[in-house]
Write a structure and sequence with these properties.
Elements (H helix, E strand, L loop, with lengths): L4 E7 L3 H12 L4 E5 L13 E3 L1 H6 L13 E10 L2 E8 L10 E3 L2 H15 L2 E4 L5 E5 L2 E7 L2 E10 L6 H5 L11 E10 L2 H7 L7 E8 L7 E7 L3 E9 H7 L3 H9 L5 H4 L3 E11 L10 E2 L2 E3 L8 E2 L4 E2 L1 H20 L11 H7 L2 H7 L3 H5 L7 H14 L9 H10 L5 H14 L1
Parallel strand pairs: 1-2, 1-10, 2-7, 4-12, 10-17
Antiparallel strand pairs: 3-6, 4-5, 8-9, 9-10, 11-14, 11-15, 12-13, 13-14, 16-17, 18-19
Helix pairs in contact: 1-3, 1-9, 9-10, 13-14
The structure holds flavin-adenine dinucleotide.
The site of flavin-adenine dinucleotide (FAD) has 40 residues, from α1, β2, β3, β11 and β14.
Amino acid sequence: MAEEKFTAIIVGAGPAGSTAAYLLAQEGLDVLLIERGETPGSKNMFGGRMYSYALNQVIPGFWEEAPLQRPVVKETVSFMSGKRSVSMTCQDQNWLQTPVHSFTLLRAEFDAWLANKAEEAGAMLACGIRVDDVLIESGRVTGVRAGEDEIHADVVIAADGANSLLTERAGLRKALLPGQVATGAKQLIELSADTISQRFQLEDKQGAAYLYVGSCSSGMQGGGFLYTNLDSISLGLVVNVADLQRNQYKINELLEDFKSQPQIAPLIAGGQVAEYSAHLVPEAGFNMRPELFGDGILVVGDAAGFVINLGYQVRGMDLAIASGAAAARTVMQARAGNDFSEQGLSQYPDFLKQNGVWDTMEAYRHTPLFLDTRRLYEAYPQVVTDLAADAFTVDGSPPEHLLGKMMRGVKSSSIKWSQLAGDAWKGGRSL
Ligand SMILES: Cc1cc2nc3c(=O)[nH]c(=O)nc-3n(C[C@H](O)[C@H](O)[C@H](O)COP(=O)(O)OP(=O)(O)OC[C@H]3O[C@@H](n4cnc5c(N)ncnc54)[C@H](O)[C@@H]3O)c2cc1C
């Protein structure tokens, strides 16, 4: 392998890397896809749901063959405050129409399937190899080093995830700060398919997605998630790393606490924990993105920070796939002009604009700043849940209209009216 030169070396067989490898191999390019895990997906985890549109553009009708769990028809967002919670649920059977809107899935089987598609298309897949560095000659990335091996290519695609070593080594970004990343912890809890369908009021093999904000993260920036798989539940928390360090919390302890909450415990009762995993999530947003390309290198997926967390939507898989596709198109164009320099790869942002990644990241560029507002995780969930509990409680007290209850609720909280107005304005513009 040390002597061979490839057109493209792609580091990381997650959704971003495998998509790029698949598309480039389909065009007949010499592609090497390197993955440190023993199999693609073995080192990967996520919450649980992928929006379909991006992969449908790459592999139309992929749900006919991909290993998926349940198509999601039910969305719930809950504010939690101690024993109280307020939830909003949206159910839409139209999401089942083709193209099916979104699916829950398990990464070990999904990532292996997608990497296998790349291999079938002609890419060389090398698993169990950790890339240690990029090779740089005269300021240009010319390949990668893995242990003793030096492997050369016209272009390297950094698809190595949130804590991208390659992006750092190529000088495209500095080391991440704790405030710019969150840590996610998840348990896979086995339950029978029938129990899941009955408990979550789902027909047959349809799925549900639940997101939680409030006391589940103990007032820290973050939230909880629950996704229904065929015969298991993905349950977890994502919390900002700087917040965890400051408050000396351990994410696995928070997760145990989350599991025991009255809103969660009945949903997982009788289930067996089959797996525990943890992973970083880039949270800095578009304002803090690395350089997306350089001489001989492109950056895709989490390595580029392409993740959106709005509290009611979590997106990373679709953006990883779409950015992998944009990178593949960039490489094909660079190859046509035989120019893999920074200039030759400079169309990458245009391809990201064409397939919506750029506009999505741009539209939510202020979200990380807004989500840094501490009131979102304690004061607001408390006001909302108190207000709802008040509205539903009948105990013979003198009647009071909703407006009065709301005014009283905000007044008795730590939130100032000016803060409420400011947060409503900023939230409306950022989420
Ligand atoms: C807790 C949590 C919940 C999430 N929930 C959702 C969700 O519900 N929906 C959603 O769309 N997104 C979600 N995301 C985000 C989503 O998982 C990511 O955006 C997506 O996985 C990014 O894909 P990627 O290919 O860029 O990176 P990854 O999936 O991280 O893949 C990177 C690959 O590179 C490999 N690698 C890394 N370093 C090296 C190296 N040096 N040498 C060789 N190989 C290497 C890794 O082993 C891995 O296979 C969640 C993330 C987390 C952590």
